[in-house]
TrEMBL record:
<dbReference type="InterPro" id="IPR037653">
    <property type="entry name" value="Cbp6"/>
</dbReference>
<dbReference type="Pfam" id="PF20180">
    <property type="entry name" value="UQCC2_CBP6"/>
</dbReference>
<dbReference type="GO" id="GO:0034551">
    <property type="term" value="P:mitochondrial respiratory chain complex III assembly"/>
</dbReference>
<dbReference type="GO" id="GO:0061671">
    <property type="term" value="C:Cbp3p-Cbp6 complex"/>
</dbReference>
<dbReference type="GO" id="GO:0043022">
    <property type="term" value="F:ribosome binding"/>
</dbReference>
<protein>
    <submittedName>
        <fullName>Uncharacterized protein</fullName>
    </submittedName>
</protein>
């Protein structure tokens, strides 16, 4: 990627920005917007484009897998499943009833 021109790097970063997932919780603040403006930067480097691609493709998560012991700690084995479930329901606009929040029930 080192031999690419600034225009080619800009196009690659623009394509990565277009494929970036939108954040439903912050509609006015999107990483996609930042990446598009970064693509227009005159000193864009191949390393920046490669790092952005690696973030989008979850390269580190694929390279360093988390064990079940890490994902399901003995003190709260369902913590991360509940966290993901709460995030997904919140994105759909579904909140927990007040009584579940009050009593700490999931």
């Amino acid at each position: 990627m080192a031999a690419l021109s600034t225009k080619q790097l800009s196009q690659k970063l623009g394509a990565i920005a277009e494929s970036w997932t939108k954040d439903p919780f912050r509609p006015n603040l999107q990483l996609q917007t930042f990446l598009k403006s970064l693509a227009a930067h005159p000193r864009l480097t191949p390393q920046a484009v490669e790092a952005t691609r690696a973030l989008r493709d979850n390269d580190m998560q694929k390279k360093y897998r988390l064990s079940q012991k890490m994902l399901r700690p003995a003190s709260a084995p369902q913590h991360y499943e509940r966290l993901v479930e709460g995030f997904e329901k919140s994105a759909q606009g579904i909140g927990r009833p007040w009584w579940k929040v009050f009593f700490g029930i999931w």
